[in-house]
Q: What sequence folds into this?
């Protein structure tokens, strides 16, 4: 066994650049002092750039799931009808959270690997009057499918007077998501995915329409209360002690995104994803989501017959030093998922394809040697 | 201005040893792999040592306030009568949280600087039948007062069939708190206080009586759901992506407590606190809490007449490189608070007393030069 750390190609946490890792170990500062205020301001300003928004953005000390809980607890009132298409494990969780907070989830069940379309959302909004909000997972981490019609869905929802709440945890910073242009009312992400930062922080943007709803309802959480966060924002502080080391790292990670530029960053993710898909096809592997919904940040591939997801993961990690994930929920044993996020580049993609190709060979799957790597290379040329 | 970082003598965050800071920057690992399982196990085992408990202990990705929200949301059912003495800003916040979760807070208002006694609790439990839980802030960070009758209060509460929920955020690991011996049902702490770890994680212990209540009630939070945390504990995992760097640091910080030993650690805190109190008296300063409730971990001292808390803090930090805090809530402008936590030792105490003494002199307060430092030294001899 190598003493070298494996390459992390998980759909989160992802590989973190040294510069961001070093920021973690900066000396602790007071969260009520001037240094923190500058840090807070910097995080918010750069987060707004990544979100492409003029809306308020709040950093939270919580995982991405905590960020979603923040959205649900601030927006969903007891008895509110909330539209929630379910097409994977994370959209299923959101439905559960809506129930926990007393909302009435109006579910659109969708086969895993597919995603909701604007027509489906429109039809449901017309049938079910009085829907207060639409909750969407932009990129279903559990299936590797992206809601490509998000801009149209958002337009339809806003026309019906519903708020648009987007879980962008595994995609923001890795693929197009102009929050203001697409009129997203609340957009949530986590630090440990496309932002290439360690886990421990979430970001939540809030539009003026969302504020209207929040101001008019009963507070349902103390820790996630956005009105309190807004009061403390005036002093560029968080209401409670923040995870200072993670905030330092998040600041550095956001600065790196700004230096690279969003367009270049999205292009890099798209090219890497296309290389993964080309390799999968060259190896005769089936991509899990339908072609039009394939994600640029989470690559989900069906395992070949006759071998197990566990075996693939074990050999890839132990022999080739590359960590990928299996499936979740009902497709747990059927797919492998590869994170194509953050600092991903040609180097990580080729190493991963090489590892996958050889792992399959080692496990007795008939593949053409080098076909995956060749196909991936072509995508980069 | 010095380029050297100031000494952090805040009531949290506190100074973090290098060994713990270095742990922050360890390479990121998967939270669903074997390495994390070992980390989780190690944190829980050492946390149980610090808690002196056989109860379950859960690490959370949240600040201490998030830990309290976890306790409230898991234990307080709609309409539950909950006893909550209020004697500072943190006990006031707990009252607010109980209301947010639909509980009926039965408040015992107590003058700030004082704390509830077993007699007061008993009297209220007898008058108000059907109280489901008693929430206590063991050490009121906002006033520097410790509930010294906590063991008796707990006994009285348990006799009345009420759960005992303790906020030990600014004291656990710095003063006596044998959770099992004192029959504490839920005990919450934060990483950044007496544990001498950076902020970003909370710990919550749960007794079998608390589990009975939790199992019988509706889930009120998804992120803080302890039943979910218990299911994942079986695999030594957290339900959601944890703040891995903070978990690494927490593990190291807990190991350091175990190496020092609880008894020695409590003694060290007590001696340092007595040195602070002796210095305050020698300087003619009034300690804020009543003598019998003085905390060993948060030192609250009234400012002298004629100068402001802000001036004291500014001069102490800018000229002498020592950060202390002002008051909170209604005593904001009346007291300064000094953290006596974590790695505090003779060195930090003497530096702080030296800084305070000279600051007061600089601001025109008549004091005997060296009297504070001399009195503090005596406490260590």
A:
């Amino acid at each position: 066994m190598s003493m070298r750390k494996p390459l992390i190609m998980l759909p989160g946490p992802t590989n973190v650049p040294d510069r961001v890792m070093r920021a973690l170990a900066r000396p602790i500062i007071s969260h009520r002092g001037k240094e923190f205020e500058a840090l807070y301001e910097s995080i918010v300003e750069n987060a707004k750039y990544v979100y492409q928004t003029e809306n308020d953005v709040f950093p939270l000390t919580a995982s991405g799931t905590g960020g979603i809980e923040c959205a649900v607890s601030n927006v969903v009132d007891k008895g509110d009808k909330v539209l929630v298409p379910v097409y994977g494990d994370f959209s299923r969780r959101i439905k559960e959270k809506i129930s926990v907070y007393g909302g009435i989830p109006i579910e659109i069940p969708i086969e895993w690997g597919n995603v909701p379309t604007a027509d489906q959302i429109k039809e449901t909004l017309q049938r079910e009057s009085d829907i207060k909000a639409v909750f969407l997972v932009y990129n279903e981490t559990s299936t590797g499918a992206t809601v490509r019609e998000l801009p149209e869905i958002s337009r339809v929802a806003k026309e019906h007077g519903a708020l648009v709440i987007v879980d962008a945890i595994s995609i923001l910073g890795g693929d197009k998501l102009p929050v203001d242009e697409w009129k997203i009312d609340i957009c949530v992400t986590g630090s440990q995915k496309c932002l290439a930062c360690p886990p421990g922080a979430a970001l939540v943007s809030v539009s003026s329409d969302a504020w209207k709803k929040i101001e008019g309802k009963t507070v349902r959480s103390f820790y996630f209360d956005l009105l309190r966060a807004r009061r403390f924002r005036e002093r560029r502080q968080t209401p409670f002690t923040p995870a200072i080391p993670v905030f330092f790292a998040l600041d550095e990670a956001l600065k790196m995104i700004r230096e690279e530029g969003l367009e270049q960053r999205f292009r890099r993710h798209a090219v890497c994803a296309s290389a993964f898909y080309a390799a999968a096809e060259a190896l005769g592997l089936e991509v899990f989501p339908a072609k039009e919904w394939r994600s640029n940040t989470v690559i989900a591939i069906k395992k070949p017959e006759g071998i197990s997801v566990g075996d693939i993961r074990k050999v890839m990690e132990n022999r080739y030093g590359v960590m990928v994930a299996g499936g979740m929920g009902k497709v747990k044993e059927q797919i492998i998922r590869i994170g194509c996020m953050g600092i991903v580049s040609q180097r990580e993609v080729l190493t991963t394809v090489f590892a996958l190709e050889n792992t399959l060979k080692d496990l007795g799957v008939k593949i053409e040697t080098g076909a995956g790597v060749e196909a991936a290379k072509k995508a980069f040329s």
Observations:
- Chain B has two domains: 7-13+261-380, 18-260.
- Chain B touches chain A through 55 residues (CB under 8 Å).
